């Protein structure tokens, strides 16, 4: 019996082929290149930029031609011809240009914010795949060992050396392991499909079991200062203030009189008259409330920035505190699991007959429950860091 158990322990270590694996950075770079939403957003951003740049043209020139019959017939005919160009007050064009440039920059920040969200989703999917791959490896090893153990018990039972209780215990244990194995395998497949979807439908796999190397995060206040400096969503909202200020200045410029200049030709009774046309439009009604509206929007933009900063600080602080707690818990798990190494002790105890089969399964299940909790904590730890550092993507 001892020789058989030792043989089973040796064969329980499954050899996995070493394959060249893409890093998470490679996966994210591939998704950034192939993601259809990002491609659509890039085209939409270019369209927005063209739209902003087209907001600063001159009015279309106006051409008028009048031909009037005289009455009575000897009164002759009259011809009038006018080419006219209207202008806003000159300062409005520089204000429009500055506003357009600000909106163009905002479009870039808006695109980067959307890009960041998609890459963050892909990164989180990779993180969960690492967790599921590690769990799969453990379940695969347990499954192989329990199958071998069950085969041995069944063989011993057929020769009259074993007992049906050990066979039933091993079968029940294998059923539970197979259930967890299949559920986890289903999750791996779903996450892989999600990654493929993010990659524009091009098949992609991430079989890694190694989380990215991370350094302890610096002081929270320093970290939040970096978040404020790089967060594209905050930059987008902050630029709303500058754009709203330019809109106020533009509204005031548009409240000034419009100008007209052109050429007029008149012919009547054989006489011709040529000259210049100059005019103005008095803005009594058209922009009556535009300045006040722009000032109200400026005040709203300022409040939006303050609200976003407060919300961002609060959410980042909560994530940072979660990171600290998970870091402590993870270190405790690592320390205890490394010191106990109880799975090896259990295997040896079963091999020499110090414990029964049911005791072995009960104790090993307790160990694996703790180990699975460790894997879950490890995943949450890295996922929390990923969310805190999302602004670096």
Structure commentary:
The structure is a single chain. The protein has ten helices and four strands; from the N terminus they run αααββααααββααα. It is an alpha+beta fold and 393 residues long. The chain has one domain: Outer membrane efflux proteins (OEP), CATH 1.20.1600. A four-stranded antiparallel beta sheet has the order 1-2-3-4, with no helix packed on it. The longest helix has 68 residues, at 91-158. Residues 1-20 have low confidence and may be disordered.
The total count of strands amounts to 4
CATH class: Mainly Alpha
Span of the ends, CA to CA = 57 Å
Domain module tally = 1
N-to-C SSE string, H for helix and E for strand: HHHEEHHHHEEHHH
The chain-level structural class is alpha+beta
Shape: elongated
- Which topology does CATH recognise? Outer membrane efflux proteins (OEP)
Largest sheet: 4 strands, antiparallel
Q: Report the radius of gyration as a whole number of Å.
A: 37 Å
Strand order of the largest sheet: 1-2-3-4
Assigned CATH architecture: Up-down Bundle
Roughly what is the average pLDDT, rounded to an integer? 83
**Poorly predicted sequence stretches spanning 5 or more consecutive residues:** 1-20
The percentage helix is 55-70%
What's the number of helices? 10
């Amino acid at each position: 019996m001892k020789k058989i158990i030792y043989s089973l322990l040796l064969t329980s270590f499954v050899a996995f082929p070493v394959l060249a694996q893409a890093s998470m950075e490679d996966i994210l770079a591939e998704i950034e290149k192939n993601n259809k939403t990002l491609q659509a957003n890039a085209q939409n951003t270019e369209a927005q930029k063209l739209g902003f740049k087209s907001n600063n043209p001159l009015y279309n020139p106006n051409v008028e031609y009048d031909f009037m019959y005289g009455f009575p017939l000897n009164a002759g005919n009259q011809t009038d011809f006018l080419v006219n160009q209207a202008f806003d007050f000159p300062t409005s064009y520089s204000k429009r240009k500055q506003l357009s440039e600000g909106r163009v920059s905002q479009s870039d920040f808006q695109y980067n914010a959307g890009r960041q969200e998609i890459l963050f989703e892909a990164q989180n999917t990779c993180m969960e795949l690492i967790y599921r791959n590690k769990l799969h490896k453990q379940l695969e090893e347990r499954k192989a060992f329990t199958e071998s153990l069950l085969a041995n018990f069944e063989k011993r039972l057929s020769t009259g050396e074993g007992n049906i209780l050990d066979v039933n215990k091993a079968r029940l244990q294998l059923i539970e392991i197979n259930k967890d194995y299949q559920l986890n395998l289903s999750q791996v497949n779903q996450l892989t499909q999600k990654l493929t979807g993010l990659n524009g439908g091009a098949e992609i796999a991430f079989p890694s079991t190694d989380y990215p190397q991370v350094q302890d995060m610096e002081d929270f206040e320093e970290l939040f200062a970096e978040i404020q400096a790089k967060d594209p969503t905050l930059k987008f909202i902050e630029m709303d203030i500058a754009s709203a200020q330019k809109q106020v200045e533009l509204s005031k410029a548009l409240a000034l009189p419009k100008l007209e200049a052109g050429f007029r030709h008149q012919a009547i009774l054989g006489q011709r008259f040529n000259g210049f046309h100059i005019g103005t439009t008095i803005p009594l009604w058209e922009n009556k409330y535009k300045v006040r509206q722009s000032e109200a929007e400026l005040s709203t933009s300022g409040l939006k920035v303050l609200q976003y900063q407060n919300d961002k600080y609060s959410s980042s602080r909560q994530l940072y505190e979660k990171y600290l707690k998970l870091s402590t818990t993870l270190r405790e798990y690592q320390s205890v699991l490394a010191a106990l190494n109880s799975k090896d002790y259990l295997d040896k105890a079963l091999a020499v007959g110090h414990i029964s089969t049911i005791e072995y399964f009960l104790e090993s299940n307790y160990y694996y429950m703790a180990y699975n909790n460790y894997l879950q904590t490890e995943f949450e730890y890295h996922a929390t860091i990923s969310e805190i550092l999302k602004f670096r993507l």
